[in-house]
Write a structure and sequence with these properties.
The chain contains 21 helices and 15 strands. It is an alpha/beta fold. Among the domains are: 193 residues, Rossmann fold (3-Layer(aba) Sandwich), CATH 3.40.50; 154 residues, no CATH class; 36 residues, no CATH class. Strands 2-1-4-5-6-7 form a 6-stranded antiparallel β-sheet. The protein has a 6-stranded mixed β-sheet with strand order 8-12-13-3-14-15. Helix 5 runs antiparallel to helix 15, helix 9 packs antiparallel against helix 10 and helix 20 crosses helix 21.
């Protein structure tokens, strides 16, 4: 439940601090005093988007902070995921700051979170019903959310995985048909390209080897000159002979003193290494390797690579990959019926797997809808809609992200009249009562929330107003309820009463909030009855209403 709300620099609200209690609390006051602004502020704590227009004139930022207790333990798994510390005994603190620069921050227990993260936990914190929500009832695309449960939600996750796979295979199937038609139109050209690539017989390894060989042969004269110079130095054998003589002398020295052993070993290694190097075929037979025709032959082969790379604007690796692609494309043309048949089998299998789980979800929804119909009829009768007839119509449609169900709410509010879509039948007052009945039913499965009703009683009066008041009171037995109302019947049944007013100080408007005691409630309700001016009759009726509802 919402324990306290602090709002600073929010439209005409300068600085207010409100403490709330469990049960039912009504907010009353003249139009424009700031009642809906308080609900808007709470809505920001529930993850609604912020607007800089809501910052009080002349201020740089607006601040809203709410403290919640006894919140659903479902929230803790999100707090763990977001890395937010908490204690089972602690309250939950949510803070929003809106800056005139357009920046907005969200904090949970003083840890910065994203708006999306805040929205994820909002359904476990509270629910706001406004006239805008009632208008949502005339949009059939919103109806599926009312006939679901945890099991369906889990199956929807699996369904969406199957659906993604099906759509991918279906797209490939359609693309294959289109590509085949396009390929057949250019079949001759593809065969020409295949022939061209087969003749070229490209290889990245071959191209690298040819380039290395060209470099070698192109520098033959310089290589030959350097080899000749080396051979001239060593051809007479004097260098090796001199080293060998020095090695003989070192061996004798070693026999006299072991300290010459390392020197002898090093010179000996050098001698044999040099002898081996000078006898290598690379030095002796280089001239026989050179073939002027080979250089021409390699350059001709490399020109094949260059021409194809220039023609297709691709490097060798890309050319080889492209060659494989057009081989596959041509293979598909030659074996199109087989490819399409195999792909169609995969598509059909994927379709059936997706359809089966979608059908299972649909059947479960239909079972839930039966109970929903029964419960809503009961609550609508409590709300003075005695002759209500309500049905939920299912129509099977092609796969959507929510399954194969298109749902419409069909109602008849008058005996003997056929059911028609809710969007084309209900008046404003009937829509309000329908939404209240719907939220009463759904709310029973989500306890410990703060439920907020912003003028849900709009457009009703008389005995219907009493019925709505009793229904809201019923909801407050299981959840904390905050309710903005203009009806004395609703105001009188509440456990607590807040009056919202505004005053002008130094040419600035300020919102004020007062917690009304019993006598102040009598006066406020009397003013609601007699259009702002309490009379003896309205005061007496106000006392009677409060007295009658005291033990509700």
């Amino acid at each position: 439940m919402l324990l306290s709300l602090t709002v600073k620099n929010f439209a005409i609200i300068d600085n207010i601090d409100i403490e709330f209690k469990n049960g039912m609390t009504v907010l009353t006051g003249e139009t424009g005093a700031g009642k809906s602004l308080i609900i808007d502020a709470i809505g920001l704590l529930f993850g609604n988007r912020a607007s800089t227009d809501l910052i009080r004139y002349g201020e740089s930022k607006a601040e809203i902070e709410g403290v919640f207790s006894n919140y659903s333990k479902e929230i803790n798994k999100y707090l763990d995921e977001f890395g937010i510390e908490y204690s089972e005994e602690d309250n939950l603190t949510i803070r929003r700051e809106i800056y005139s620069t357009g920046k907005s921050t969200c904090r949970i227990n003083n840890v910065v979170v994203t708006l999306n993260q805040l929205s994820q936990i909002s359904e476990y914190i509270g629910d706001i019903h406004s006239q805008h929500d009632t208008m949502g009832l005339i949009k059939p695309q919103n109806y599926l959310q009312f006939i679901t449960n945890k099991e369906i939600e889990k199956k929807l996750i699996l369904y969406k995985t199957y659906l993604t796979e099906y759509r991918k295979i279906n797209q490939k199937y359609q693309d294959t048909i289109v590509k085949s038609k396009e390929s057949k139109q250019k079949e001759d050209f593809l065969r020409f390209q295949i022939s061209e690539f087969q003749k070229a017989n490209l290889s990245v390894a071959e191209e690298d080897e040819l380039k290395n060989e060209v470099s070698y042969l192109s520098n033959y004269e310089q290589i030959s000159s350097l080899l000749q110079e080396i051979n001239e130095i060593y051809d007479n054998g004097e260098v090796l002979d001199n080293i060998y003589r020095s090695l003989t002398s070192l061996k004798k020295l070693e026999s006299f003193n072991e300290k010459f052993s390392q020197i002898r070993s090093t010179v000996e290694e050098c001698y044999y290494a040099l002898e081996s190097a000078l006898d290598s075929p690379e030095l002796k037979e280089f001239s026989s390797d050179f073939d002027p025709n080979r250089l021409e032959e390699i350059n001709l082969r490399l020109s094949t690579y260059s021409n194809l790379k220039r023609k297709y604007q691709k490097n060798t690796e890309e050319l080889i990959a492209y060659f494989e692609e057009i081989k596959e494309e041509l293979d598909m043309i030659d074996n199109f019926d087989f490819y399409l048949d195999e792909l169609k089998k995969k598509l059909d299998q994927s379709y059936m797997k997706t359809y089966e789980i979608a059908k299972d979800i649909s059947n479960q929804r239909k079972e839930i809808s039966k109970e929903l119909i029964t419960n809503i009829k009961k609550h609508l009768q409590d709300l003075q809609l005695k002759n209500i007839n309500f049905e939920i119509e299912f129509k099977e449609v092609p796969f959507t992200n929510d399954g194969i169900d298109e749902v419409d709410f069909l109602v008849s509010f008058n005996k003997g009249e056929p059911v028609k879509p809710l969007s084309k039948t209900a008046s404003g007052g009937e829509l309000s009562r329908f939404m209240l009945a719907l939220k009463t039913v759904i709310g029973n499965t989500i306890p410990l929330q703060t439920k907020i009703f912003d003028e849900i009683d709009n457009g009703v009066s008389g005995s219907v107003a009493y019925s709505i008041a009793e229904k809201i009171k019923y909801i407050s037995k299981k959840s904390q309820v905050l309710c903005i109302t203009h009806l004395p019947q609703v105001a009188s049944i509440a456990d607590y009463h807040l009056k919202i007013s505004k005053e002008i100080i130094a040419n600035r408007t300020f919102t004020k909030i007062n917690v009304l005691d019993k006598e102040e409630r009598v006066i406020e309700i009397a003013e609601m009855i007699s259009k702002g001016k309490p009379t003896d009759a309205s005061l007496a009726l106000a006392r009677e209403l409060l007295s009658t509802n005291a033990n509700f």
